[in-house]
Amino acid sequence: MESIALRDAAPRPRETTEFDALIIGAGFSGMYQLHTLRDRLGLSVQVLEAADGVGGTWYWNRYPGARCDSESHSYCYSFSDDLIRDWEWSERYPEQPEIIRYLNFVADRLDLKRDICFNTRVASAEYDEPANRWHVTTEAGERFTAQYLITAVGCLSTANIPDLPGLDTFAGDWYHTGLWPHEGVDFTGKRVIQIGTGSTGIQSAPVIARSAAHLTVLQRTPNYSVPARNAPLSAEFRQWVKDHFPEIRSVMRSTTNGHPFRITDRSVFDVSAEERLDIYEEAWQRGGLQFRASFRDILSDQAANDTAAEFIKHKIRQIVKDPATAAKLSDIDHPYAAKRPPIDTDYFETFNRDNVELVDVRADPIEAITPTGVRLRSGAEHPADIIVFATGFDAMTGALTRMGIRGRDGLPLTKAWEAGPHNYLGLQVAGFPNMFTITGPGSPSVLCNMPVAIEQHVEWITNCIAYLRKQGLARIEALPDAADQWVQQVNEAARATLLPKAHHSWYLGANVPGKPRVFMPYAGGLARYRSICDEVAATGYQGFALGV
Ligand code: N01
User: Fold this and answer.
1) Angle 100-105-110 (CA atoms, 0-180°, nearest 5)?
2) According to a count of CB atoms within 10 Å of the terminal CB, is the N or C end of the chain lower?
3) Is the CB of 347 inside a 6 Å radius of any atom of ligand 1?
4) Which atom from ligand 1 is nearest to the alpha carbon of 164?
5) In 128-234, which ranges are continuous DSSP H helix?
6) 366 lines ligand 1 (CB under 6 A)
7) How many Å apart are CA 50 and CA 174, to the nearest integer?
8) Is the pLDDT of residue 296 over 60?
């Protein structure tokens, strides 16, 4: 593994706008991509970042209870033993402020900030074929030019705020969880309405309920959740991680989801009903995403999945004291883990509080926001001083299609992706030479522990650019046929699982009105994906056109 010895990259005057590579976004992926291209390949690189600090998704998602559901010792860069040795996580799951501290620690250690333009939002990126350059313009009108354009914009970075009539008349304050104010929000004594019960809403509701006078949760689709069982990390565990990191890294890089545990090889039907309950109970007590790894067929066989689903529904009915509320929370219509499976701290328990109420807005949909709260179709009014939209994101494609990207002959990315995202290996779009997308649609990305998926992409892109330079090549572009075949493979991989059965899922784009319904991430697993990408590289980049 890499030991960090910084190259002596000479500081450039700020006026320089011509680079070998431009990277959009300074989250986990943009930071590592900057490090590899600048410090390993010696390229001139500029990162453009809309925020005034590093962190990407974690910069914006500062909502109450924001915490990652990957375990901290795995939610970090694994490429450098020095970084592993010198950083200490405090809890089993890292909280948002700790992740931001970690990313700043990495940015400072690798001296990344001098090559990041903060407060710089990209307005357009256009490919100039004769010059073989990307021209990027920012909202402030600055222009940058580079041979390679790398989008590191994150999968969950474009807030989805439902277009509800009357929002502009609301007399109180409203917030989207993904655009949370840095100074925080004081809920003390306030009546709060939270819309949304995805991973975010499941984290925020218990925290909001602790200080608000009253919390009304508007639930459209009930959701499964398993206890996170967060806790401080012991000194022994932290030492164990440092001593065993090579094994941990090797597990993360060779499993389906990039987590530091393996999915067991046993089927739900290899064990008796009693043994199965014991296994689920043990996983429930241990907590976290490992629940999903209890059996190998939970995500591929409906009957197997039903056993996990029923176990969790039973738990919900046991925890929630009011039977009508318990029934609404457990009336879940999709297979377990077919939507991103949340983990929680006291989510279902929160509905036992006197100041918390659950309202089913599938049965009685939201009709309008009024000056004093939310009105439902039945005419029922729910008063609020604050509305929290935990309504998710225009995921995976939203940030890319809103950036004014145009490829060869001015082809807009929005046009190329009219019928849904279409690319090769999730890395390149035909007609957009030298543009790479980190963890975009068509790659395992959101189905994985993200830093592991990010490292695989960044390293592949870096090796690809190194290869081009060594061969004296200036251009790489996905071939249309290869992209067609890859899209088919992405569809087939999804069909082999129960994932497409969650019809409301953002994996399918179903949460954004008018968005094409296409299953976006590659569900064949990170290990398989890695070997496909490696094979493509080893055989001279099959499926890509390389040119001078
Ligand atoms: O967003 P979501 P999220 N009226 O889209 C509801 C990651 N993440 O921010 O399901 C009423 O999952 C919507 O209802 P429905 C993780 O990958 C990770 O929670 O569309 N309701 C749903 O309940 C996650 O999957 C972590 O029927 C409306 C909710 O809003 C991803 O981010 C933490 C509505 C949106 O759920 C997104 O999670 C948080 C409307 N008009 C997030 N529109 C961790 O690492 C939407 N909804 C722990």
Assistant:
1) 125
2) C
3) no
4) 41
5) 199-211
6) yes
7) 22
8) yes
Strand partners, 360: 219
Q: Which strand (E) or helix (H) includes residue 416?
A: helix 413-416
Q: Is the C-beta atom of 446 inside 6 A of ligand 1? A: yes
> Which pLDDT belongs to residue 12?
47
What 3 state SS string does 471-510 have?
CCCCEEEECHHHHHHHHHHHHHHHHCCCHHHCCCCHHHCC
Q: State the DSSP code for 39.
A: I
Q: Is the CB of 361 under 6 A from ligand 1?
A: yes
Coil, helix or strand for 25?
coil
* Cα 444 to ligand 1 centre (Å): 19
Of 75, 199, 375, 508, the one to substitute when testing ligand 1's pocket (max ligand atoms within 8 A of C-beta) is 199
Percent of the chain with pLDDT over 70: 97
Closest residue CA from atom 45 of ligand 1: 68
Atom of ligand 1 nearest to the CA of 220: 27
Residues 6+ apart with CB under 8 A from 241: 73, 84, 248
- pTM comes to 0.96
The pLDDT tens digits for 179-204 are 999 999 999 999 999 999 999 999 99
Joined tokens for residue 74:
């795995």
Give the whole-angstrom CA distance, residue 510 versus residue 430.
Answer: 25
Return d(Cα 180, Cα 96) in angstroms, integer. Answer: 12
Residue nearest to atom 39 of ligand 1 (CA): 200
Angle formed by the axes of helices 323-330 and 302-319, to 10°?
A: 160
Q: Who's near 392: CB < 8 A, 6+ residues apart?
A: 156, 160, 178, 196, 198, 200, 506, 511
Ligand 1 lined by 203 (C-beta under 6 Å): yes
Question: Is the CB–ligand 1 distance for residue 225 below 6 Å?
Answer: no
Q: Judging by DSSP bridges, how do beta strands 373-376 and 381-383 pair with one another?
A: antiparallel
What value does the mean pLDDT take over residues 520-535?
A: 98
Q: Which of 316, 342, 339 shows the shortest CA–CA distance to 329? A: 316
Query: Can you state the angle between helices 526-538 and 235-254, rounded to 10 degrees?
Result: 50
pLDDT in tens, 77-129: 999 999 999 999 999 999 999 999 999 999 999 999 999 999 999 999 999 99
**What is the atom index within ligand 1 of the atom nearest the CA of 201?**
19
Q: What is the pLDDT of residue 504?
A: 86
**Residue 5 pLDDT greater than 60, yes or no:** no
Q: Would you report the helix, strand and coil content of the chain in percent, each value rounded to 5?
A: 35, 20, 45
